[in-house]
Write a structure and sequence with these properties.
This protein is of the alpha+beta class. It is built from eleven helices and 14 strands. Helices cover 36% and strands 23% of the residues. One of its GO terms (biological process) is potassium ion import across plasma membrane.
Length: 376
Amino acid sequence: MRRVRRRAVFKNGDCNVVQKHLQRRRLRFMQDMYTTMVDWQWRWTLLAFALSFILSWLFFALIWWLIIYTHGDLEELHLPDNQEESGWAPCVSAIDGFTSCFLFSIETQHTIGYGVRTTSTECPEAIFMMCFQSIYGVMSSAFMAGIVFAKMTRAKQRAQTLLFSKQAVICQRDGSLSLMFRVGDMRKSHIIGAGVRAQLIRTKSTKEGEVMTQFFTELEIGSDDSGSDLFFIWPMIIEHKIDENSPLYNLNATDMLHDRFEIVVILEGTVESTGQSTQARSSYINTEILWGHRFDPVVLYNKDLQAYEIDYARFNETTQVDTPLCSARELNEIYKIQEGFRTPASHTIRSRHSSSSSGYQSPQDRRLRWQLSVPL
């Protein structure tokens, strides 16, 4: 039966990690309040955005009411309708209760200035509070606007339009087994300085008997001959050559089904339109790797449009191809025996010529061909 590994990174890039028993967690998160609020879900961010204004309006409205109450402006003879007869000079004109203090608090904090309620020179504390609330209003608006802007433009949002193929494939390229997956970008604004990395997560036992269940191994990958740095203008196939330095060197098709590992792929770069860095992640477990398949081409030249056309409907499409079921190590050993320690290309040319001329295959050749094609 196939053993499916519990994945560390989901297909959408989210990490399958839960933290617990953190000491002073709330205090540490409150010390970095800006990052905490940016990481919040949208409903909590919008709730905090609204409460930051409503609570500040109510708080300063209470301060204004106390200033006006202690000055005596709320007495019957000192109300706005009787101020002309009594000759009373209030701290703030047109204030007759807490509701009018609340409206004046909103006008002061956001510099609305309807022209009805104004501060007089009668109360120095009122002048100071007006200056303080105006400064606070500018700072709070800038802080909350910065949080919303940072949340809308963070790298995670741009990563939603970066695509990874649903499956990875293993097939032969230039005589060697290669692990491949495809990446693409849905937007016309390109990723500048795009780079891709891949890491293998599997269990490893040390010589001392220590079992490391999450051991990371960096995989050497690249696209064509350009390495891991991509000129990312259309979907590209990323290849990992399974050679002597690869941790997959000893795995055959059967081992690939029964082994437990995860390959995490990371695409990083700079967004051309905003200049911000972005990162997209995905992963492939052993059951999501197709042995003996090859990706179908998706980039074709359209003569009518005189441009290269990308068919994203075939982004995940693969074609089954003839691929040896043995491991890369066994395949190299077979090549060495079959070719007499010469290059695969020269031996292939010579073997084709001899086969076409005589049509004879030795028993050793028939045995090697059987090893390459033996079913699971």
